[in-house]
Amino acid sequence: MKLITAIIRAEKLDEVRQALIAAEITRITVTRCSGRGQAERVDIYRGLEVAPALVPKIRLDIACNDEFKQVTVDAILEAARTEGGEVGDGKIFVTHLEECIRIRTGESGSSAI
Questions:
Q1: Which fold, 2-38+48-112?
Q2: Which of 3, 31, 66, 79 could form a disulfide with 97 if both were Cys (CB 3.0 to 4.6 A apart)?
Q3: Closest CA to 90 of 33, 50, 51
Q4: How far, in Å, CA of 10 to CA of 46, rounded?
Q5: Residue pair 80/7 in contact by the 8 Å Cβ criterion
């Protein structure tokens, strides 16, 4: 099992959701977040360095079985990338998911996803 976490531009959420649904990935968690990836420059205000502003983003968390990992990643990549690719398009993290337990039934493992 894998946990796929994607940080994307807020305006790309609908496109990514549509791409995931087309790939038959419908179980996702969406969270508003903010952060900073590549710092383009350091701001200086009245002679002092100022911390770069945090940028609003969307975080997607998708738990999937191993056979759906590449399908999910490809759908996000295709829909989240801007024309030509730009700084700020986001990141995708794929981590091993040790266990998943469905609270309602107590099922665990792949069937709980």
A1: Alpha-Beta Plaits (3.30.70)
A2: 3
A3: 33
A4: 32
A5: no
- Contacts from 34-40 at CB under 8 Å and sequence distance 24+? 35/7, 37/87, 37/88, 37/91, 38/87, 38/88, 40/87
Per-position pLDDT tens, the chain of length 113? 999 999 999 999 999 999 999 999 999 999 999 988 776 667 777 888 877 778 899 999 999 999 999 999 999 999 999 888 888 889 999 999 999 999 999 999 988 88
What is residue 17's three-state secondary structure?
A: helix
Contact 94, 2 (CB under 8 A): yes
Tokens of 46: 């009245």
> What are the boundaries of each domain within the chain?
2-38+48-112
Q: What is the chain's length?
A: 113
Residue 80 and residue 77: Cα distance in Å, rounded?
Answer: 5
Beta strands in 9-70 (DSSP E): 29-35, 43-45, 48-50, 55-64
